[in-house]
Amino acid sequence: MNLLWLNISIGLLVTLVLIIRNYSRKISAYFFSLLWEAILIKLLLSFLIPVCKNIINKCFVEAVDTASENLNWGIFENLNLKYIYVWMGIGFVLILLFFLNYWLLLKQIRKFRKDSSRYAEFENKLSNTYKANIKICDWIQSPLTFGFFRTTILMPISTLTMTEKEQHYLIYHEKIHVKHRDSAWKMLAVLIAAIYWFNPFLWLLVKYFNQDLELRCDHKVITELGDNKWYQEYGVSYNKEKKLWQYDGKDIYIFYDPDGYKMIQGNVKSTDGVSLKVIRNSQGKIDNVKTMKNDEINLYAKELLD
C-alpha cells in the first residue's frame, strides 16, 4: 500500500470511528483506546518496515540503483526522493520541537517538585504493583503522570488539603495511566502525527486518543471504586445499571472539582446531562456542589477534552 492509499484509508477509518464514537453510548472508551492503539501500530509499522528494508538492502544486499529517483517499497512506492526529503525534513523538525518542549517541561517540573510524607503510604502501595514515585508540585493545577521506566506521578500542592479518600481517587486514576503505559502511548501518538504531519486526520486521532485514555481511566475508577460514598452526601451517586455517575437521578456530563477529581462522561450529551462544580472553602474542604452555567460548561468541556 503506497502513501496515498494508506492516508486515504486511515482518514476514512478515523472518520468512521469518530462517527461511531459520537453516536454509540454502549461502546466503552476502553474499546476505542485499543482501536486507536492498533491504528498507531499499523502506521508505525507501515513506516518502519520499508525504512528498515531499505537500510538492509543498502548495507547487506546488492547495491541499490542510486540513479533511480523513486523508491519501490511499501508506502514509499513510486514516491520521488525529492518529496521524501521534504516530507522527512518537516517531520524531523516537528519531532525535534516536540522533544525540546518535553525537555523544557521536565526541567520546569524538576525545579518545582518536592517529596511529601503525606503520599509516602500511597507510594509504598504503588511499589508493590506499579513502579511509580509520587511527588507534589506547586507549578501544576491537576495531577500529571510522566516517564517510561520509572514513572512519576505529580500531585498539585493543593491536594494536600484534601481528604485521604479524595486523594485516593486521584492517585488511583493516575495508577491506571501507569498500568497501561499511557505516557508512552501519548508520546508515540505525537510522533506518528509528526511523521504523517500532512494528514489532518492523524491530529484528530491524537486529540480523541488522549480523550479516550482519560475516559478509560475514569471508567476503571468508577467500576472498581464505585461502591465508595464519593461525594454521596452532596447528591452524587453511581448507577451500576447505566454505568454512569448521576446527580439526583440525572446523568452527569461534567464533574469538576478544581482541587480534586475532574471528569467528563463521553457517553452523555451535554444537552441531556447535568454539569457540576465543587465549591471548597478557604481550608480546602467541600462546601457544596452546584450546577454549572452554559459558559462554564463550554469552558470546562474545552479544558477536559483538549
Brief write-up:
53% of the residues lie in helices and 17% in strands. By secondary structure, the protein is an alpha+beta fold.
What is the N-to-C order of secondary-structure elements (H for helix, E for strand)? HHEEHEHEEEHHHEEEEEEH
Count of extended strands = 12
Instruction: Note the main sheet.
Output: 6 strands, mixed
Tell me what portion of residues adopts beta-strand conformation: 15-25%
Helical fraction: 40-55%
Count of helical segments?
Answer: 8
The 3D shape can be described as: globular
**N- to C-terminal distance:** 33 Å
Average pLDDT taken over every residue:
78
Residue runs with pLDDT of under 50 for 5 or more positions: none
Helices and strands: which structural class? alpha+beta
Please tell me how large the radius of gyration is. Answer: 23 Å
Mind explaining what this structure looks like?
Helices cover 53% and strands 17% of the residues. It is built from eight helices and twelve strands. Strands 7, 8, 9, 10, 11 and 12 form a six-stranded mixed β-sheet that branches. A four-stranded mixed β-sheet has the order 3-4-6-5. The protein has a two-stranded antiparallel ribbon with strand order 1-2.
Give a quick set of tags describing it:
globular, about 55% helix, six-stranded mixed sheet, alpha+beta, about 300 residues
